[in-house]
Amino acid sequence: MSDVVALSQTGSVLTVALNRPEVHNAMTPEMVSGLTAVFREVNSRDDVRVVVLTGNGRSFCAGADLAFMRAAADYTFEQNLADGQAIFDLMQAVDECAKPVVGRINGAAIGGGAGLVSCCDIVVAVERAKFGFSEVRLGIAPAVISPFVMAKIGPANARELFLTGERFDAHHAHRIGLVHHVVAEEELDEKIAERVHALLQAAPGAQADIKKLIRTVAWQPKETVRAFTAELIARRRASEEGKEGMSAFLEKRKPWWQENHE
Questions:
Q1: What mean pLDDT comes out for the span 165-182?
Q2: 38: nearest Cα among 55, 23, 17, 61
Q3: d(CA 205, CA 240)
Q4: Which three-class secondary structure state does DSSP give residue 13?
Q5: In DSSP terms, which residues pair with 104 in a beta bridge?
Q6: Which of 27, 177, 189 has the alpha carbon at shortest distance from 105?
Q7: CATH 1.10.12 location in the chain
Q8: pLDDT tens digit sequence for 91-139
Q9: For the chain, what is the radius of gyration of the CA atoms?
Q10: Are 185 and 127 a contacting pair, CB within 8 Å?
């Protein structure tokens, strides 16, 4: 793994850290490709139950790297197209990760950094964190992150924040649904541990199916997802997890996925 993405694992929890603290974890193509590879590869890892995404240092992610942005000004259309596709692929890899992804937002999340926040399943941010979709102030647009951000904050909030490019604090991020929990800096890891513990009480296969369920059902007319939802519940009831969960409930014991996560 590249040095710009740092990995550590405790038990079944994998922590993925953006690792360019000297430049506020600004994204480079190398970081984008490294993160994408991690989130694609983790889907097949049975030893990982939860992924925590964070940044090393005082910031989560300041968006695109300044030196890269200067170079991109001279890119061909095809090069810029490929770069945009790579960023979209990263957002999609995080958004569609089969494991629950907890965003540990330890500081500023700007541009693509805020895009990454929108792709996490649960987001905990420190009170001092600042957010912003600053692309418009640079004469560009938050194009490839927009589907993921709008799925989280809705088009009404996107209109104001995308069009102004202004920064906003963690409490506003919480009000619009970008962030679930806002905590003091000294309480960040305690809150992350609590959310991870809650996730570890659930069946991992069911969690993967539920993530797919949410992506499939959201914003669709109810009648169009009748077959999909009925098939999913039938499959889950017949699955090993479904049978184990019901047996454990009736026998007044813990299912296997909770045994090691008291």
A1: 98
A2: 17
A3: 9
A4: strand
A5: 124
A6: 189
A7: 204-258
A8: 999 999 999 999 999 999 999 999 999 999 999 999 999 999 999 999 9
A9: 19
A10: yes
CB 94 within 8 A of CB 100: no
Q: Which residue carries 């964070």 as its tokens?
A: 54
77-91 per-position pLDDT tens digit? 999 999 999 999 999
**CA separation, residue 144 to residues 88, 111, 181 (Å):** 5, 11, 26
CA pair distance 229, 210, nearest whole angstrom? 10
CATH 3.90.226.10: which residues of the chain?
A: 5-199
Among 37, 42, 34, smallest CA distance to 18 is for 34
Q: What's residue 1's pLDDT?
A: 54
Distances (CA, A) of 70 to 32, 64, 211, 259: 17, 10, 38, 52
Q: Which fold has domain 204-258?
A: Lyase 2-enoyl-coa Hydratase; Chain  A, domain 2 (1.10.12)
- Distance (Å, whole) CA 110 – CA 63: 5
Pick the CATH number of 5-199 from 3.10.50.30, 3.30.200.20, 3.90.226.10, 3.40.50.300: 3.90.226.10
pLDDT in tens, 1-57: 569 999 999 999 999 999 999 999 999 999 999 999 999 999 999 999 999 999 999
Q: What is the pTM of this model?
A: 0.95
